[in-house]
């Protein structure tokens, strides 16, 4: 094999390698672009789900707060009623003790 044949063979091989690299680079770029698109879609869905979860959490916390407020009101009312009942019992005890004297 002469120098010129070897040089021609190397040139042809270089051309094939270059063409393969260009085609492979395009395919790789296409695949990476598609994967980036899928990743963005997944992240977008995750963000929407997080937003929905936060909204549901806020609604639940609001419901809990309303329930606590109502329970506090009911507890205060029950305390008032118990205080009135204790006062009434105290008055009964006093009146009965006055009768027995």
Low-confidence stretches: none
Which structural class do you get from the secondary structure elements?
A: mainly alpha
Give the integer mean of the pLDDT values: 90
The fraction of residues assigned to DSSP E strands is under 5%
**Euclidean distance between termini CA atoms:** 141 Å
Shape: rod-shaped
H and E string: H
**Radius of gyration (Å):** 43 Å
The protein's oligomeric status is single chain
Main beta sheet, described? none
User: Would you count the extended β strands for me?
Assistant: 0
Please give the share of residues in helix: over 70%
- Number of helical segments with 4 or more residues: 1
The overall number of domains is 1
How would you describe the overall organization of this protein?
The chain has 101 residues and is mainly α. The protein has one domain. The chain has one helix and no strands. The longest helix has 98 residues. The protein is rod-shaped. The termini are far apart.
